[in-house]
Amino acid sequence: MKLRILLGLTIVFSVSTLKAQDHPYKFTEVKSLAKGETEDQCKSGTCWSFATISFLESEILRLGKGNVDLSEMYNVRMTYPKKAADYIRYQGKNQFGAGSLSHDAINVMGEYGLVPESAYTGLQTGVTEHDHNGLDALLESTLKTALDKKLVQENQEWRKAIEGILDAYLGRAPKEFEYSGKTYTPATFRDAMGLKASDYVSITSFSHHPFNSKFVLEVPDNFSHESFYNVTIDELATIAEYAVNNGYSIVWDADVSEKTFSFKNGMAILPSADVKAEDYFKKVVTEQKVTQAERQDAFETLRTTDDHLMHITGLAKDQDGTNYFIVKNSWGKNNSYGGFQYVSREYFRGKTIAILLHKDAVPKEIRQNLGF
Question: What CATH code is carried by the domain that includes residue 112?
């Protein structure tokens, strides 16, 4: 059963029609925001673009601009040359690879614009799924060769090589395209959708920096060294719930390495220490009550790491009244909820790396404390 957008309204799954009818957890949706189709990033490390593009599609729906299928690969194509340049400037010591963060997609939107999927798929003719293993390996080896042989000192031909590889694998980025009978550039298409990069903020919660300030988040995929607003974990959870309740979806960056993050079961929970592993998703279990200190310790000891970005599109409760976020993943539709997952509030508190959302989605008092 597919999720469709009709006349700006979201048709969602009914629990009774899901393969999860025998699941011990029974969910009731409290808030469901308009969103596009569930996508599959396949064999590519581009969750950051899939999550942020899904978010921007919801933003376009929220703004009353219609249901638009945006290109995820346009962001990838325009970001790789920036990564390559930073890799050379840092003499190979900066992160280079498929991963990025949501602000990188917002930066592409601000600098270049947006492109519909119909104008740029990032797929070669006859190919239907993304597989970037060869692309990533070739790009990295090209840059390492440039450094090893001092080609950077002799010329800047490596830049042309990077562009050529990207064009061969993903295609040339369009400078102009047709959409719904009109001609656009990426910049004019972005403007027609009513989107502004300056409207979006990134927020995190870690105590090794002062709260109500900004700092450069120390995770490898923050290759662009962007700063994040820092709030307490209680405030971060408040922001997320306030945003969704007021019609704003969220890009969610989280640790998904826990055994209790299960795409197959369509859930993510953070069970108490006394819960047996064999009971995960087979019984309704008690969860931890995550403190700021526990959250920080997990980050410092690398038990909470920057793994995956997704799109928060709603709120739900289980049969006991426990709160969950409804999360749209980019791993296809083959799970109990058609590619969506129910993420408990405690999992969110413990395993969130950061969120990105519209600045107006932040409660006024918190926004004032942060200075925007």
Answer: 3.90.70.10
Residue 173 tokens read as 């980025």
Supply the pLDDT for residue 4.
30
Q: Which residues contact 1 (CB under 8 A, 6 or more apart)?
A: 13, 17, 338
Q: Coil, strand, or helix at residue 354?
A: strand
- Mutual angle of helices 73-89 and 133-148, in 10-degree steps: 20
Please state, as a whole number, how many other Cβ atoms lie within 10 Å of the Cβ of residue 231.
Answer: 22
Q: What is the structure's pLDDT at 157? A: 87
d(CA 271, CA 344): 10
State the Cα–Cα distance between residues 352 and 96, nearest whole angstrom: 23
Structure tokens at 117: 């999927």
Q: Is there a contact between 187 and 113 (Cβ–Cβ < 8 Å)?
A: yes
Cβ atoms within 10 Å, residue 318 = 18
Residues of the chain with pLDDT under 50: 1-18
Q: Is 165 helix (H, G, I), strand (E, B) or coil?
A: helix
Q: Hey, is 240 helix, strand or coil? A: helix
Checking phi first, is residue 136 left (phi over 0); if not, alpha (psi -120 to 50) or beta?
alpha
Q: What is the pLDDT of residue 153?
A: 73
The per-residue pLDDT for 209 is 98
pLDDT value, residue 21: 59
Q: Which of 253, 355, 350 is nearest to 308 (CA)?
A: 253
**pLDDT at res. 230:** 98
Question: Going by DSSP bridges, is the β-strand pair 200-204/250-254 parallel, antiparallel, or unpaired?
Answer: unpaired
3-state secondary structure of 22: coil
Amino acid sitting at position 159 = R
Q: How many domains does one find in the chain?
A: 1
**Predicted pLDDT at 20:** 53
Residue 62 belongs to what domain range? 4-370
pTM, two decimals, is 0.92
Predicted pLDDT of residue 12: 35
DSSP string, 72-134: SHHHHHHHHHHHHHHHHHTTT-S--SS---HHHHHHHHHHT---BTTT-----TT--S-B-HH
Question: Residue 307's pLDDT is what?
Answer: 96
Distance CA 14, CA 16 (A): 5
